[in-house]
Amino acid sequence: MSSSATLSQPLSLPAAPPPPLRRVRLRMPWVLPGYLASAVSFLGAIAMFAHFTRLSQLSPQEMVNVNLVRMAADSTALLYWLFCMYRLHKIVRIASEKRYPLSPGWAVVRFFIPIYSLFWGYKWPNGMAQFLKQQRPDLQINLRWPGVAVLAATLLGILGIRGFLLFAVLSYLIRRAQQVVELETPPPLLTKTQLDLATSAGLGAGFGLVLCQAIQEFSSKGWLDMLREVGVVALVAVGIVKFIEPLSEWVRHVFHVEHHPAAPAGQSWVLRIAVLMAIAFSSFSHEMLDKQIDKNPSEALRLMCAMLLVTGGITYAWAAGARCHPARACRRGLVSGAAIALMVLAALWTNPAAAQSKIATAEKVTHNADKLPGLGVSLFLGAEVSSIYGMAVPLCLWALFGLIGGLSIDRGWRNGSVSGVVLSVLFTALLVIAVLRLAGYVESREIALGASAVLGWCVSLLLFPSAETLLRRQPQAA
Predict the structure, then answer these.
(1) 123 vs 296, higher pLDDT
(2) How far is CA 186 from the centre of its chain?
(3) What pLDDT digit, counting tens, does each position of 346-377 carry?
């Protein structure tokens, strides 16, 4: 009886261990920027609390500034937290070969669903903790409190402590995931050549924009003044060329540098004319830039910094996306163009001092109310943006540049050369400018400003020595 009863009962076999996780060649998200943004938001909340409780008195303008800074820091911390959460889900998803049931995109999208986001904020940290516990049963991890902390952070967001709680939970899960998932050392995020390329592209766009402004002011002078300045520049260029030739011969003689055979006469004259034109253009550009920057250094610096951030950021995103397998230059160019342009435009638009100067007189308000606000420099930069509608145009434009240039890299247009990227960006810029010009939104001066910025960007890409390699899609290993 006992033996038959024992045989009739099901055998309790030990549970099979989960399949091992694969190695992942990604970096865990860095949470320090999130803590810094949360600290700025918390300080802003303390300043507002002190004002409302009569502990300190702030002027209305100071209250507006504090509120803007607090809102910007809080939004930045929340967006960065979503990015870190996306990266953590992506790492676990890749390591488990999609056995982890939730995709990174859906994990982020569910936070934008009203009311359900509260439940989701409690559910996903505990689900992540349970999955890590299943992969490594001896892991010391709490399966309940991470979700409770995220839910509490959502409910206590008005107190300014939401960011600290959210990133504390994220740091806890990242440390536990590092004990379960084996990470390979990925290539460096930013190499010196990539930084040089991005800086050269940004400075080229900025100098192109400032130089175009200087040339426009130069063209408003009288003919005699213009001819006199051009003649001086040409005379200096000829003098430099005639001085450099004997100087170079003297250097070769002193340092015993090998002297190559002379070029044919035709090539020699072409070379001299090219050198003369290069020196003349550089002298003329230096003169124009010096006057323009000296006249209004803060405005020139603002334009240079904005163009350096936007065009340099897009260029770096292209170079980084070209190294991925498969290439992700299109996606990264689109995201970086939209994100960086949004930050620059928001900084310009939410500047209380600039906004106050724009509405100083009723005549200016009436004049600007009849047409779309300043789509010239704002077409590519946002220098005169004062409305949400005005922000949408340059935002979409830079996102389009990042998309088209990245698509050229991913698809390998013109055999993957940098000229394919340059031509695609130039064609897109000309097409957009033509459409806006025919629609009556921009004037000739504004077209020249926008075209000069893009032209300076593209010329810098063509002249940079390593751009051909950095902006080329890498072959995928077998």
Answers:
(1) 123
(2) 21
(3) 665 554 444 444 444 333 433 443 443 333 34
At residue 444's C-alpha, the angle toward residues 441 and 448, to 5°, is: 110
Residue at 112: amino acid letter: F
Closest CA to 72 of 384, 388, 347, 390: 347
Mean pLDDT computed over every residue of the chain: 75
Rounded to an integer, what distance in angstroms lies between the CA atom of residue 334 and that of residue 105? 17
Residues 6+ apart with CB under 8 A from 278: none
- What is the rounded distance in angstroms from the CA atom of residue 412 to the CA atom of residue 475? 11
For 24, the 3-state DSSP assignment is strand
Q: How far apart are CA 132 and CA 17, in angstroms?
A: 13
Closest to 200 in 3D by CA, of 10, 463, 386, 14: 463
CA distance linking residue 147 with residue 164, whole number of Å = 14
Pick the closest to residue 233 from 293, 225, 453 (CA basis).
225
pLDDT of residue 362: 35
Residue 237's alpha-carbon distances to 219, 243, 272, 406, in angstroms, are 21, 10, 11, 39
Q: Which residues of 71-94 are buried (b: 16+ CB within 10 A; e: fewer)?
A: ebbbebbbebbbebbbbbbbbbbb
The most distant pair of C-alpha atoms in the chain lies apart, rounded to whole Å, by 121
User: Rounded to whole angstroms, how far apart are CA atoms 448 and 452?
Assistant: 6
Q: Give dist(CA 347, CA 394) in Å, integer.
A: 14
pLDDT for 74-122, tens place per residue? 888 888 999 999 999 999 998 888 888 888 888 888 888 888 888 888 8
Tokens 């806890």 belong to 172
Other C-beta atoms lying within 10 Å of the C-beta of residue 238? 13
Whole-angstrom distance between the N-terminal and C-terminal Cα of the chain? 63
The pTM of the full predicted model, rounded to 2 decimals, is 0.65
